[in-house]
Amino acid sequence: MSDIGIASPPDEVSAPTCPAVPRGVHIFGASGSGTSTFGEAWSKRFGTDWLDTDSYYRMPTEPKFREKRPIDERLTLMRADLDAAHGPWIVSGSLVGWGDPLVPSFDLIVFLKLDPTVRMTRLRAREYERLGEEMHPGGTRAAESADFLAWCERYDTAGLEQRSLALHRDWIDRLVLPVLELDSINPVDTLVDQALAYWQTQAAAAGDRKR
What's the Cα-to-Cα distance from 104 to each of 3, 107, 113, rounded to whole Å? Predict the structure, then answer.
């Protein structure tokens, strides 16, 4: 398989200064790993636009998450929103399998990992917050919720046939831009600090190479 995209460092980087934040950030990981939480925290701290792939992947139905949006429509909508951004932005959620044309826009890609037990505990709590008792046996959304949680639980053991650790590793291996991996058991503010420090180190090194 061919490599996927490349995002070049900023054209003007001179030591000892470097850009405060990257122009385009992508944060992804398993469901329940905290990508949306990271995206929101990054956006609030740095005042950047925040896009989440769930808003583009599915059609706006009620109940939610019932119908996929065609890939070309997802890309058209995302490109329009990225073009309309007033400055730096962050995209949270998975783009694997459909969002590769957007990869050249990224200056920083972060992959969140999390212990499966912790992740599934978070997801079950989130499902209950969303559906309440309807997620439990006998509830109107019980089967739907059980299927979703089973799909999420297979993330760490499944192959390339679904969104999984294997699929994400395969995608990472084909990227040109290095990917920062972080353990999201840590507080989100710590994760944001780590990502920013990594970016600033990379940007400063790129500036040194240009001198």
Answer: 11, 8, 23
Taking only Cα atoms into account, the Rg of the chain, rounded to an integer number of angstroms, comes to 18
CB atoms within 10 A of CB 121: 12
Q: Which SS3 state, helix, strand or coil, does residue 137 take?
A: coil
Spatial distance between the Cα atoms of 56 and 73, rounded to a whole number of angstroms = 8
Strand ranges of the sheet holding 49-52, from the earlier edge strand across to the other edge? 49-52, 89-92, 24-29, 108-113, 179-183
Q: What are phi and psi of 19, to 5 degrees?
A: -55, 140
d(CA 50, CA 48): 6
What tens digit of pLDDT does each residue of 61-117 get? Answer: 777 777 899 999 999 999 999 999 989 999 999 999 899 999 999 999 999 999 999
Six token digits for residue 179? 């990917």
Identify each DSSP E strand in the chain by its residue range.
Answer: 24-29, 49-52, 89-92, 108-113, 179-183
Residues 99, 42: contact at Cβ < 8 Å?
no
Instruction: Let me know: does 41 contact 192? Beta carbons within 8 Å.
Output: yes
- Measure the CA–CA gap between 13 and 210, rounded to whole angstroms: 8
Q: How confident is the model over 11-35, as pLDDT tens digits? A: 443 333 445 899 999 999 999 999 9
In the chain, % of residues over pLDDT 70: 89
The model carries a pTM of: 0.86
